[in-house]
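Appendix C: a fully annotated inverse folding record. The material below is reproduced so that readers can follow the format used throughout the book. The structure is listed first as tokens, followed by the designed sequence.
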């Protein structure tokens, strides 16, 4: 793996390899055998949007792998005053060993990767949130009892025939990364969202995943293995808050929706959560253990991405 720019750009085998390594690093955390492949490296973290999980887990993860993080708020560097991505990429490539970027346009991370000479990790754009979905898949694997992935294709085999449902803003970055994950690993994905919040036909055609769109939340949940949601107001969409709260209210995951899913179905959330909007407080609390495990797995999985890139 040279960069991690999107789930779309990964193969199923790459996804499985990085999750397998995430599981290994989770087991090794704090032990003498834990590897430090980034010894002597400094990685820039260029963030143009807020973050708790991604920022902290990358900073901690870089240190645990022997490297040093250099956090650069996008507005603290000249990029925020109009210096081009291209020039920033050229300059930073001479100082640091890699760049972790959270921004708006997917084209910005793609351009940085193309023009610079260092590896680039997408820490969330408007199009994709690959680190999140890889961590979610790792969490899904763990809930299926997989503490390691030894055989090739083991995760795809375990997920074959399983159904995940994404509720709410199915046009957002997290949903889109789920769509490409479904395409790469072969599980079924349902999108439970009003028409205005479905991904474009072009994205669905490009993904060639087993995706079905539902206009009734209860039907979408029926018999599902995993129910997933994300904030209704992604970063950058704040001006649409009122319209979104109104349009998405019927798509909240609440107890009646969960009862439609398979007994013991997972409920997942990438966080931050807004209880009473995309998920009821009751459902959140009942599934908090797995939701916070997803958050923890960001650390292990992103360390695996960094170690894979450093290989
Ligand atoms: N899930 C996630 O990316 O959280 P942060 O915005 O806090 O990084
Ligand atoms: N879709 C959300 C994810 C936050 C982690 C956003 O882009 O704000």
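Designed amino acids, in order:
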């Amino acid at each position: 793996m040279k960069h991690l720019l999107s789930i779309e750009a990964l193969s199923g085998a790459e996804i499985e390899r990085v999750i397998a390594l995430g599981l290994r690093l989770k087991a090794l955390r704090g032990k003498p055998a834990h590897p430090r492949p980034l010894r002597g490296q400094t990685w820039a973290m260029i963030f143009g949007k807020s973050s708790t999980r991604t920022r902290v887990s990358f900073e901690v993860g870089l240190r645990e792998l022997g490297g040093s993080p250099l956090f650069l708020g996008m507005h603290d560097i000249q990029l925020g005053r109009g210096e081009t991505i291209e020039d920033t990429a050229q300059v930073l490539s001479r100082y640091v060993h890699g760049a972790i970027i959270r921004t708006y346009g997917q084209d910005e991370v793609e351009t940085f990767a193309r023009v610079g000479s260092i590896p680039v990790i997408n820490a969330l754009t408007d199009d994709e949130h690959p680190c999140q979905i890889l961590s979610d898949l790792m969490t899904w694997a763990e809930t299926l009892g997989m503490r390691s992935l030894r055989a090739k294709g083991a995760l795809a085999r375990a997920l074959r025939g399983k159904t995940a449902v994404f509720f709410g803003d199915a046009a957002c970055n997290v949903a889109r990364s789920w769509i490409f994950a479904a395409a790469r690993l072969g599980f079924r994905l349902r999108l439970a969202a009003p028409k205005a919040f479905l991904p474009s036909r072009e994205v669905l055609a490009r993904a060639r995943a087993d995706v079905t769109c539902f206009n009734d939340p209860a039907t979408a949940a029926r018999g599902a293995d995993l129910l997933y949601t994300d904030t209704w107001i992604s970063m950058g969409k704040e001006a649409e808050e009122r319209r979104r709260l109104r349009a998405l209210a019927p798509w909240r995951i609440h107890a009646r929706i969960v009862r439609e899913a398979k007994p013991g179905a997972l409920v997942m959330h990438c966080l931050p959560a807004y209880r009473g909007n995309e998920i009821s407080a009751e459902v959140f609390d009942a599934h908090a253990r797995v939701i916070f495990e997803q958050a923890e797995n960001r650390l292990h999985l992103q360390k695996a991405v960094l170690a894979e890139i450093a290989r």
